[in-house]
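Notes, Module 5: Reading structure tokens.

Key idea: the token line is not a picture. It is a compressed description, and you learn to read it the same way you learned to read a sequence, by spotting repeated patterns. We will look at two proteins. The first is printed below with its tokens.
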Amino acid sequence: MVLLLLSSVALAAPEFGADLSAGIAAGALLGDWPVPGVHGAWTVRYDAFLDDRSSGGPRLGLSVIGTGSAFPKQRRRELDDEGQSDEAPFTFLEYGVLAILQTEPEDPWGATFGLGLTRLDLSDYYGGRHAVPVFNLEAALRQRLGETWLYVDYGLRTGWGSAGGPDGDWEDWWTLRAQISLGFHLR
């Protein structure tokens, strides 16, 4: 009986789904420190779903994302000890997790919605590193490429975070990005 039970468990097909994508983005980081302007970025993500892509209907999942600086770099403004303004480009790295809901993955066009938390790491913030926790919302249109496992995502992501500044006061940070990614269904 134990052998029968083990063999039936071993033959059961997994029901999870997964996607992997990479792309480019254009956006802005807004706050007291960055100069208003546009930056370029790279982005990668791994989506894990409770259901396989062929299961039909919407899928609930978790997305692990990473985004970092690319050309063009946004600029930042700092005041030195003498009150003089200094501008220079800065780099960032943002990574975290989102809970996502995706419409029917087999349709030619679909949508993905997500919300979650990321960490925005800024290099060279007043001479050191600075981390900002960010709450994110995202929406994307997904175009399936023919009858293949490939797709293109056209997405928007925005976020808000707050962290202590160099003078001890809390600073608000806002992110806004438009991105396009090429991905494929792993399962």
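Here is the second protein, with the sequence above and the tokens below, as before.
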Amino acid sequence: MANYKNNYLDQVIFRIDFTREIDHSQKSTTSFYTGIKDIFPHKEDIKNTILEASFSQEKGGRKISQAERDVINYRFTDESKNIILGLDPTTLFIEVKLYTNFDDLSSKIDLVLDNLKRCYGNLIIKRTGLRYINTIVLNQGDPLGWANLINDNLISMLNFPADKSELSRSMGLIELNKDSHYVRFQFGLPNREFPNPISRREFILDYDCYNDDEIEISDVSDNVLLFHDNILSLYEDSISDGLREIMGEVDD
């Protein structure tokens, strides 16, 4: 797989969902923070209120009861504030704003998962996901001109409007059902100035790989590696040599 001097990654997101709420006791959270604070030294507690509904059967029929409950969502960030780790009662995520390489991301994921298991036990994961959002912005040229940059099959829809000057947005969606996971691939011209006609040369390649199998924490890393390799392959299939030249293809 090719390597490049530069990339257009705007955001990388890793996420797992638990089958049950974790124990958000002060002892567990403090222990978890102690294990990750060399990488994520900044901590923020965010208090939220959630509304829960319960059902009961009574003589007059089914009764619905609602009650509010306070929860705390934790956010941890690295020194540069470019990487956010979120720990909620039923979800953990890592959001990277300034991506370097997969080895660095993978090492942070492994550190977080090891401490999650140490502090909260061997949780069962009901959904695992990895998402790479590429925002390709070019400062020169035709905003609709993506030939030799993006795979022709992904830009063919730009030929549909009779008057291309009227185009204000053009987004496509492809969903794939792989043997072991799913892929949701969004692509096209998002146009941040919508509903005005497109004036910026900007193209989105957004790959979201996930599965909803129930697995243990120890199995998450293998899934992440599989998702990453699949996303890399799809990205290479999505771009053309002109963009590879701009990015600066380098030898391994």
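Summary for the second protein:
- The longest helix spans residues 102-120.
- The mean pLDDT is 91.
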